[in-house]
Amino acid sequence: MARPFITYLFFLSSFIFITPSNAASYNVVSYGAKSGGRIDSTSAFLKAWAAACRSTTAATMYVPKGSFLVKAAVFKGPCKKNIMIRIDGTIVAPDYRSMGNSGYWILFIQVHRVSIFGGTLDAKGAAYWACRRSGKSCPVGARSITFNWASDIVVSGLTSINSQLSHLVINSCKNVAVRNVKIVAPDQSPNTDGIHVQGSTGVTITGSSIGTGDDCISIGPGTRNLWMEHIKCGPGHGISIGSLGKDKNEDGVQNVTVANSVFIGSDNGVRIKSWARASNSFVTNVVFRNLIMSKVQYPIIVDQDYCPNNQGCPNQSSGVKVSQVTYKNIKGTSRTQAAMVFNCSSSNPCRGIRLQDINLTYMNKAATSTCNYVKGTRSGVVVPKSCV
User: Fold this and answer.
1) Which H/E stretch holds residue 130?
2) Percent helix / strand / coil, the chain, rounded to 5
3) Could you tell me if 358 and 382 are in contact, meaning their C-beta atoms sit under 8 angstroms apart?
4) Cα–Cα dist 226/173, whole Å
């Protein structure tokens, strides 16, 4: 499991965007952006991006201090040279009704060697969540910042507030470093995943604080070589692999590490979730180590019976194969007595589950573990008493 970390170190050492002093600079204000958060600056941002993208030398797109209103915008590549986007201000979203049904707010497509440093994205999601709660007809909602088919990307020091849906999406990308980001949404805000990764390889997420109404980090099909370290998660639904297996022909997840992280008051700690239906998807080579749980509802959970509203899951048995998952040095407190739950598939039992040095308690009393269709080993002191 060292490979993602080695890739990460090489990636940062070779691609940290040490912008030369003679790099071209493109200030959005020079292209007509107006501070104050009320005048539409979308066109100015796109013009500044286009100029930076055309530059024959490394370029900086600069967003100064202030508040800038930007509607749904697509920043397309490929560009000629490296681009650094330095944000000292706040980018604010328009009224949710003006975002349409595209599903995105800020979207990067086919960009390479792009970095984003600093800044705040304020999606003003509360009005959208209220629309959904009211039962009225609402737009599909927008993810705050999305990278599609991108490579060699750095996102550092960014703050994302109150996204309508997921805050940061990494889809079909290679070599992405996310570090020192802060993601904030209320614990009852629906579907506001902090970071969603799917179809991507060589992603690292480090030194970040994430508190939302959904998963702190969600990991979808086709994710490989994902490293997460020094994450503070909560509130939210924890760090989740899945849900997987919604489709029969679906790629799997492999080589994932979560290390040296803290979960505070989240619904789950580390979770693997799959639909209870036929699928050829899989989860393999996963390590969860050096984790602290503080009043987490389910610190360790595998749930392969996911079937919302009991629809579309005719046989109630997941085809997703879960194997070679290690839980090591995980300590803290559970908000429920069931601190460890392995509810695996009856047709594809979990295999190669390893428990080492686990100490989880419930209200200063003994917690419990539950096992269905799981095979594995344990070593060291494992509390609660393991059923593996």
Assistant:
1) helix 126-134
2) 10, 50, 40
3) yes
4) 12
The yes-or-no answer on residue 167 being catalytic is no
pLDDT, one tens digit per residue, over 210-232 is: 999 999 999 999 999 999 999 99
Q: Tokens standing for 49?
A: 């991006």
Q: Is 357 a catalytic residue?
A: no
Q: Choose, from 237, 267, 303, 305, the residue flagged as catalytic.
A: 237
Candidate list 214, 267, 303, 305, residue with the active-site label: 214
According to the model, what pLDDT value does residue 19 have? 54
Residue 143 tokens read as 């993810």
Structure tokens at 188: 């009852």
Q: pLDDT category, 315, cuts 50, 70, 90? A: confident
8 Å CB contact between 166 and 128: no
**pLDDT tens per residue across span 24-61:** 999 999 999 999 999 999 999 999 999 999 999 999 99
Give CA 181 to chain center in angstroms: 11
Q: How far apart are CA 115 and CA 90, in angstroms?
A: 17
pLDDT tens-digit series, residues 187-206:
999 999 999 999 999 999 99
Q: How far apart are CA 176 and CA 77, in angstroms?
A: 16
Q: Quick: pLDDT tens for 278-298.
A: 999 999 999 999 999 999 999
CA distance 374 to 179: 35
Nearest 5°: the CA angle 367, 371, 373 is 175
CA distances in angstroms from 4 to 11, 194, 246, 326, listed in the order given: 10, 21, 27, 16
Number of DSSP helices (H) and strands (E) in the chain, helices first: 3, 30
What's the number of CA atoms in the CB half-sphere (13 Å) around residue 346? 6
Give 268's contacts (C-beta < 8 A, 6+ positions apart).
Answer: 237, 238, 239, 240, 296, 297, 298, 299, 301
User: CA 220 from chain center: how many Å?
Assistant: 9
CA–CA distances in Å: residue 90 to residues 62, 160, 251: 12, 10, 37
Instruction: Please state, in angstroms and rounded to a whole number, the distance separating the CA atoms of residues 312 and 314.
Output: 6
Element (H, E) at 377: strand 374-383
